[in-house]
Amino acid sequence: MNQSKTMEAADRRFGWFMSAPSLALLLAVILFPVFWALFTSVHDYTLIAPNFDTFTGAENYISAIQDPAFRHSLGLTAFFVAAVVLFEFLLGFIVALMLNSVERFKPIYYGILLCPLLMNPVIVGLIWRMFLHPSLGIVNYLLTVVGFEPVNWLGSTQMAIWTIIMVDIWHQVSFMIVLLLAGLSAMPKEPYEAARVDGARVYQSFFYITLPLMMPVIIVTLLIRMIFAVKTYDLIYIMTRGGPGVATDLVSYSIYRTAFVSLNVGEASAMSAILLGFILLLTVYLYRYMRSLT
Amino acid sequence: MLKQSLLSLALATGLSTAAHAESVNILMEGVPDTEYVKTLLPEFTKETGIEVNLEVVNYAEMHTKLVPQLLASKGSYSAIVVDFYWVGEFTKAGWLAPLDDMIKADNFDTSVYVPKMMDLVGQVDGVTYMLPFYNYAMGLLYRTDLLEDEANKAAYLEATGMELAPPKTWGEYLEQVKFFTKDGMHGVVNQGLRPDPIAMEWSNYLFANGGEFHDADWNATLNTPAGVAALEQYKTNVNEYGPLGSASFSFDEAFNVMAQGQAYSYITYNFFRTAIDDPSQSTVAGKVEIMPVPGQEPGVGASLNGAWGWAIPKSSPNPEAAWTFLKWVESKKIAKERAMQGGSPTRIDVFDDADLNAKFDYMGAMKDMLLTSHNFPVFTYTPQLVEVLGRELSLAVADEATPADALAAVEAEMNELAKKDGKQK
């Protein structure tokens, strides 16, 4: 008994010892910047006068929340995240289910699907900007060839956000596919066999076996994708700069502008903290939900 | 033998290091004018023994790379180049070293510069911080072949009662934009992307209507008849006479439309005049000319000025060597050699140089553009003003704000920034 306790303690020590370097690194590159940003957010810190001389309390937070442009960005980002995550999930799940039943050439399909994911978002933005050029781009050319009117992809306030959503789906859907496919291939075969013996139809096995068993994987996938989608910055910077008007002014781009154009790092930090708060709430909720399932 | 050759090798290396002991490091933007400087550097090293290392990056990276170096007590850049956007910020933060003592000691003549250049990227409140490097004033690119076409001439005369010729006034130009929008051709192509493409382009419209950004006391003067007219005209040009989608064009996309022969005119940076004659990127080489953006009266220019300046940061490790370089690169001889390669001058004596005018027949138009140009407000918050202006103009073009409301919003924020900067009392 005693011996096993010492062994356990030794194991624990060894565990700490092994993870210490990575923990220290995480502390240095994640925890420290987060606290630094929180500290900055309660000071009047600008790039013109980069010092912590003036403590401002909640002032930066108040002025961020009172700023209609920031509130618009938050709302728009919520819409964008909901749209991309929903469409990518539906599309991704369908493709993953199809791929799961494929026997031959699986690695080839994988390879093709992973291509967009391997590309840098900046490159994706530049390529699509070229494709979508209203008069010189290939997309509108092909549309006119088959008799459609050319579309104002990025220049119309109604269309621009959907164009960004479409490009994001093209870029990120394979992430969903790969994660969901991994979940599907790890599923036990027995319940399906039992269901088949009992005469269950395909859609019944899907709704009563696949979906419930996949739930934890689905939640994690949605969560990761949501957090990534909130951070979308590159596509906006390359494709629209938030325009036309404020039609694509997502929150990350808005924070970037506050910090590096307005040089107001204090308020930008407050905006980031508000965003972090939302993401944390969402994460906690989804994590709890996942725990309740298992 | 081996020992001897090793010794001579060591000596040779030692000597060469001694001869090239000093080096000047400069951060520059990857643009043609930087390339022209690069080709001439061996000459400088030969003359002075000072090596020059150019670190060339793209525009988006420059500010991020400069600021930490400027904040340090000893940075790694001996000299830097400063966009007019940053002049207010850099001087307010006290990052640039005044050049007046060195200018005086060496009798370097700054009166040779176009005065507008010195106002923009030379002096701030009477202190010289920079030497103007190259200018990128905006001009009106227009299709000469369309103006010379006999059928067009007759049709234009019939429609407007005016002769078809390069527009002398802004009103005449707007008529031509309307006239040339036909048969799949567009009268104009605009760069409506926010923030700087639209803000810079629209500034020309403002000046063309006789408007300015602020009065002598820095009170914003945008929500005025001139400002509103400028924004109405801009909106009409984008939405009625321009190609689909120009509300989101950056300058490269707008240039491509012009270069593919799909538009009659394009108000843009002067360096595109050289590019439009390059057959590898243009189908209208030799058919496009540049002129100052016309104003309300003939001879009144409405071009927006823009420029880069050379400066020595206070954190420079070797300001003397940096000054040696600056006065060399800005000497008449080197400034002319840069211009002969296609560079954009800032010195009047270079603009008037006979060899240069013989080589580029549009040099006179470039000089006129600069002499009659207007400056964008230069203060600590220039980048922020561009951001606000870009956002509001874009909203107006997208029909989500009326021109008057959009300009009133810019005015309010501009006044606040000017107050914060101590410009407005």
UniProtKB/TrEMBL annotation, chain A:
It comes from Bauldia litoralis. It comes from the Bacteria. GO terms for cellular component: plasma membrane. Residues 74-286 form the ABC transmembrane type-1 domain. InterPro entries: MetI-like (IPR000515), MetI-like_sf (IPR035906). Pfam families: BPD_transp_1. The keyword Signal does not apply. It is found in: Cell membrane. Keywords: Cell membrane, Membrane, Transmembrane, Transmembrane helix, Transport. It is a multi-pass membrane protein. Belongs to the binding-protein-dependent transport system permease family. This is Carbohydrate ABC transporter membrane protein 1, CUT1 family (TC 3.A.1.1.-). The chain crosses the membrane at residues 20-39, 76-99, 108-128, 161-186, 206-228, 268-287.
From TrEMBL, chain B:
Keywords: Periplasm, Signal. The keyword Signal applies. Pfam families: SBP_bac_1. One of its GO terms (cellular component) is periplasmic space. It is found in: Periplasm. Residues 1-21 form the signal peptide. Belongs to the bacterial solute-binding protein 1 family. This is Carbohydrate ABC transporter substrate-binding protein, CUT1 family (TC 3.A.1.1.-). The lineage of its organism: Bacteria, Pseudomonadati, Pseudomonadota, Alphaproteobacteria, Hyphomicrobiales.
